[in-house]
Design brief:
Layout lengths: L2 H4 L19 H15 L4 E6 L5 H11 L4 E6 L6 H12 L10 H17 L3 E6 L7 H10 L10 E7 L2 H6 L5 H4 L2 E7 L4 H14 L9 H11 L3 H18 L6 H11 L13 H13 L29 H10 L11 H4 L5 E7 L2 H6 L4 E5 L4 E4 L10 E10 L13 H7 L11 H12 L9 H11 L8 H5 L2
Parallel strand pairs: 1-4, 1-5, 2-3, 3-4
Antiparallel strand pairs: 6-9, 7-8, 7-9
InterPro entries: AAA+_ATPase, AAA_22, ExeA_AAA_ATPase_DNA-bind, P-loop_NTPase
GO molecular function: ATP hydrolysis activity
Pfam family, one: AAA_22
Length: 481
Amino acid sequence: MYLNYFGLQTEPFSIAPDPHFLYLSERHQEALAHLSYGLQGSGGFILLTGEVGTGKTTVSRALLEQLPEQTRTAFILNPMLNETELLATLCDEFGIRYAKRNITNKRLTDKLSEFLLDAHAQGEQCVVLIDEAQHLRPQVLEQLRLLTNLETNQNKLLRVILIGQPELQDLLRRRELRQLAQRITARYHLLPLQPTDTERYINYRLQVAGAQRALFEPAAVRLVHQLSGGIPRRLNLLCDRALLAAYNDQVQTVGKQQMRTAARELGEAEQQPVGGPPRWAVAAGLVLAVFIGGAIGAWQLSDTLPATTAQERPVKATPAAQEGVQELLRHWQLPQLPRQQELCRWVEEYQLSCVRGRLRFDRILALNLPAILRLDDGSWQFIGDAQSTPQANWTGEFMALWPNPPGYQITAPETYQDWLKQTLSTYRQNTTDDLNALAQTLQQRQGLPVSGEFDALTLAWLTSHHTELGPRLTAATAENR
């Protein structure tokens, strides 16, 4: 109805998965990097989870487009199957012929095994993608695990990509599925868009649809991010309805009034902003320039505690700690911390890690990451900018979150060496520098404790200053430092 009025060639905010409108935000690209790493490894299972509408299908489509031509794929879009139906569906998807009468699990498994061995002999890789995998029965998941037992000395002959809502992670924690859980070599939980990505997402879809000018006022963009929580599907619904409202009001651009009209019609209530400060990327660039200029060369972090020591008092969602902890989580667009869950262990599900210990306050600010300070009454004070000051009863302890680089596994540090080598290229003094030498060079230049290893503090500094992942201190903070 509004296409001609706004000079559009097609609907820009259809919820159909049109590849022409494929937009990969920073988080979608990060998810894609983790999953691509998993397909290159030797494991059998890859896991992608996220709330409804966050773009899991978008990521999976992008992943499949990157697969080499020698890849055979099977799609299972209806996971409400028993073991026999699963095996039969896989045979159908791979084009394997079998007798329809008197089929048994063994006959179907033998057919699949023969097919996988033949595909491997021809240099082909076989991948199974299962959507809505949170509905899979434990017995079916166990059958999938048994299929992945077929392997060579180096690789599995079958890779399984499980895509589902957060309940899938709960399902995989069941005791009878612990063997399968141990075979997941790459996992990613897709979070909503950041405010800056919401603006880019809207403008990108409008451009593809043929828009020759901006159709959404900045205030309307901020409001739709707040209303949608950064979830792409909800963004599409709200923006589509807001364009219709603007057409009905005969105005040239969508403002806050039209966005509120769309929200009322769709039953969306205004929420508190869920993202970090929208200008954190600018702050990161400014702070990085200050750091490279040598402003932190005089640091001495000799009073730093080991960043991930087990004897640290765990951060849990107790009533005393709730407010500061939840403010930190809101800046990372994370859901509410489950009661009595230990924060540092819980955030691992979202590809985040903790850095914690004791530092002087100015040194905590220099990390350029939102942080929380432990007070002597057991509560936590949130620090989001450098103009804040610690309360008088601060114990000296702090904690911050940092995003894991692609392929990173806490228990296997060697998994992110490629990222480290690329990131640390500016610190290389000669071609013979190994990672330990590069770590020492970085720590000496930036005033970090010189351990010659990539501990949590060093990795937090690296991701804060050499990636655009996650929130930073506000732009006002960087300008005043």
